[in-house]
């Protein structure tokens, strides 16, 4: 899939066939080497792909005699149209929905308000520090754009350093925040570009907020509706005569359709496809055959995995874009200082919302177990520091205009600095996350076999040993309520309900879901078990995702 | 996947986002409508997609005021680089290997020698008839190119009209022939284009034959080696700690790598990826986890299904390419007569090898059961008459040069005639195949539920009821030998071995396979059962494909 992306190449060109061969071979190499390094505590698959990309870039640079370092030029379209949708859709599809929604308020606080705080700090920090260091005077619009670019956490990389089974709460918080943050950054960035900041009026903040709210709600609704439509179509039409391939094709195509519909209507495709993934795993996934379930689960994960690997390989290769570096090579000091300033601002900007917001959230919790300890806050702060392809894509969008030499130099500096920040944050921060978690959290060590598995891999998505022993083909929905010590206790009195409002919402939602939604759209326990596939056997538990 | 193909569009363009939305929505519509029409005896999915494409073309033509009828221009690259590989790979992956190899000689006769006969008849027929009708005098090279273009059976459409479970022998013959024929046509076409036909010498036939043989053997070997490499890597590296997503990704990427490697080395990618599919389903598929098996089986089928649907939709939409039709509209008679001549030559050219070659093959068979009856020969003749995307792609390659007005007119005529032949043969011949089979072959009617399922759908690929009752997790390989009345009897004496040489070859191969290949590359019975996935349960039969 990811291979189909050489849109910028004339594929009849023989040179492009060579590039494709090399690229596919490198992807295979990344997968094999990533597997071999699985037990390593420092390296993860993103870093492997980045390093392989960098090495290949060096080799190409050497072969071509310093002319070119990459097989492909980083293209925003490629990223936003082909690589990002499968990654984010899969994230929605595989996310543990109950945990996500139980922590919904915290996630929204971190993802939306936190991003705004981070963006503001970076923006004003950049204006002030650039002025003092004599790098240049930024316009407000440019500074805000830089803020939005560097407020975008890399949720793809986050998935690789945190583990859904080992640290479920942290995972759901950091990853959920990452998704909302992705969307917020893109929305912010577009809002900043479309607003006329030259004439700031009274209503601009309100207008901005209204715009953000509209985008958020409309995108979410579109995703929900797309998911429900797919569930309805498959439930109504396919009932009794299932066909795995049609079901899988329809799920894929409809998910992609919601994404490009969102793009068509200038909404946030990322949010849309994320919620579409959630709805599809809650309803549609239960309406299809057992083989469709296994196939969708793994093929979406595989697509996402290949897209991630492709992306890191691509960023690694593109990092040596010699044209850009040549531009800044006569003033290397500037580039270094800009990168350092940005990295420092990223660190400060994130700290400035993680710790205060965690403090606020802790005030609302009663039990010591529900509170975020200081160690956890540090991990949340650290794990969200990585900047990745979203930052790259936004930076290329903002700084690829070619108007005037001074502007050109500034743009080249910003792009090389973005690349530096992405590489440093992914490699240095990424490498140190796993050891940091082990140092800060005194968890019992997980079984060695699954020690370093990431969410995009099979093992971590398969049910935990506990859930295997609880078959729930019937209506015993209570098995969904897990009794995890780090999670929450079921509310048993009115006082509890008041202090833990999300649980009430969850319960009301469950009642509404069982009474109205599932009878129409299907879902666990509401679709008769159709034994059409060869993998069916009685008493076999479905993977427990909710 | 198929959606990633808008390489000729600037995707940042808003109009192209609209096109993509429309195209994806139409794909969804094709799947749903194709499902609803599944019980219909005349219509199949290809025809549905073609008709929807045509209707959309008419609507676009009407909306744009006669300016344009398609969202995309037919692109050879699109077809050969993205759409064809998944279709042919899946065909190799899902083909019943034993039947394919037992009928190998017949398939090769039909596919290679038959295509040569068909190509010669069409070439010389075109020269003669065009001269007599006053359409023009063709050069030998042009005529041979036309021969190669119209000798290319559409194996994609064949898959839709024949059923692997209902008519296994016919299916394996016609489909196997189709794959070899695809490859032969492309090889022929390239050979014709690269040879200097102006100065025909003595050695040209020999050189041509040598070239064909080299391409055939080299392509096949590359496919075999690619498949074996994937099996070896997965067996060696992944042993004991499987990861479904990595395995699936590696299988997909390595299969695609063999295809583009073949293109890189100017071999036949179609043959390569077909044999790679066969080897992967024989070795690699048995080395992976149970969930990987289900996932690969269905996701490859889904990819192929989506690519097929995309293709027919695309051809249907492109058929109304108004520029081309405007060129020929001042001489409508010519276009009609060219199309009729070509259709007639296709019919005659195919009859000229199916019946003689069947007669020859029947001479070598002893048992009445093994012989091809006249009814079967008629079906083989008829089912291979459809011309599809391979013909379109080759025609665009040959006739898209723009040198001189007369040449331009001739080229436009040839392209519109190709489109006409493709549409007429797919719709008319395609629609009549199912009724023809039912009329000619007095089979017991199959169970209604699976009546019209095609090979790209779940049910036909799932094991037949018989095989479900025979678990073969151990070494009882004899369950592979099916006792099908229309198939063959196991040779039991030396006389039988002499009259049925393919069976001996098969037996020797099996012995070699068990002794040397499977211990190294894995395969059924040679890989310990690794219960890593949630779908595992003991005593459960794997799908029986061999």
UniProtKB/TrEMBL annotation, chains A, B:
Protein name (record): Uncharacterized protein
Species the sequence originates in: Trifolium pratense
């Amino acid at each position: 899939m990811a291979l189909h992306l050489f849109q910028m190449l004339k594929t009849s060109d023989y040179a492009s066939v060579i590039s494709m061969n090399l690229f596919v071979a490198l992807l295979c190499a990344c997968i094999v080497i990533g597997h071999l390094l699985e037990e390593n505590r420092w390296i993860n698959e993103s870093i492997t792909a980045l390093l392989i990309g960098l090495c290949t870039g060096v080799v190409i640079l050497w072969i071509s005699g310093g002319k070119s370092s990459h097989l492909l030029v980083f293209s925003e379209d490629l990223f936003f149209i082909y690589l990002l949708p499968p990654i984010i859709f899969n994230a929605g599809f595989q996310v543990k929905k109950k945990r996500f929604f139980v922590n919904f308020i915290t996630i929204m606080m971190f993802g939306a308000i936190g991003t705004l705080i981070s963006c503001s700090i970076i923006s004003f920090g950049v204006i002030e520090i650039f002025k003092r260091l004599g790098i240049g005077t930024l316009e407000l619009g440019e500074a805000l754009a830089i803020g939005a670019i560097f407020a975008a956490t890399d949720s793809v990389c986050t998935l690789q350093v945190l583990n859904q089974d080992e640290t479920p709460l942290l995972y759901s918080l950091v990853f959920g925040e990452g998704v909302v943050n992705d969307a917020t950054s893109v929305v912010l960035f577009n809002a900043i570009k479309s607003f006329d900041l030259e004439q700031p009026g009274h209503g601009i903040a309100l207008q901005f907020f209204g715009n953000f709210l509209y985008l958020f709600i409309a995108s979410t609704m579109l995703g929900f509706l797309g998911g429900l439509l797919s569930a309805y179509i498959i439930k109504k039409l396919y009932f009794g005569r299932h066909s795995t391939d049609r079901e899988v094709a329809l799920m894929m195509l409809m998910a992609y359709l919601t994404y490009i519909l969102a793009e068509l209507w200038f909404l946030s495709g990322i949010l849309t496809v994320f919620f579409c993934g959630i709805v599809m795993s809650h309803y549609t996934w239960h309406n299809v055959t057992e083989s469709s379930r296994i196939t969708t689960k793994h093929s979406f994960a595989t697509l996402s995995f290949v897209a991630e690997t492709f992306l890191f390989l691509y960023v690694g290769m593109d990092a040596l874009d010699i044209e850009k570096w040549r531009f800044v090579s006569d003033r290397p000091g500037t580039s270094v200082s800009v990168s350092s300033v940005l990295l420092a601002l990223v660190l400060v900007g994130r700290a400035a919302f993680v710790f205060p917001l965690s403090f606020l959230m802790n005030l609302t919790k009663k039990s010591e177990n529900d509170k975020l300890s200081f160690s956890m806050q540090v991990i949340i702060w650290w794990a969200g520091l990585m900047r990745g392809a979203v930052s790259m894509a936004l930076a290329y969008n903002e700084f690829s205009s070619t108007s005037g030499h001074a502007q050109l130099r500034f743009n080249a500096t910003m792009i090389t600095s973005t690349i530096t920040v992405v590489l440093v944050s992914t490699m240095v921060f990424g490498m140190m996350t796993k050891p940091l978690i082990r140092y800060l959290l005194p968890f019992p060590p997980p079984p060695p076999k699954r020690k370093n598995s990431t969410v995009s891999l099979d093992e971590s998505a398969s049910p935990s040993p506990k859930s295997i022993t609880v078959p729930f083909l019937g209506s015993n929905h209570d098995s969904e309520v897990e009794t995890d010590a780090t999670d929450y206790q079921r509310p048993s009195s009115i006082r509890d309900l008041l202090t833990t409002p999300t649980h009430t919402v969850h319960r009301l939602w469950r009642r509404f879901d069982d009474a109205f939604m599932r009878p129409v759209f299907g879902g666990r326990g509401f679709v008769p078990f159709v034994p059409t596939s060869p993998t069916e056997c009685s008493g076999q538990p479905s993977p427990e995702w909710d």
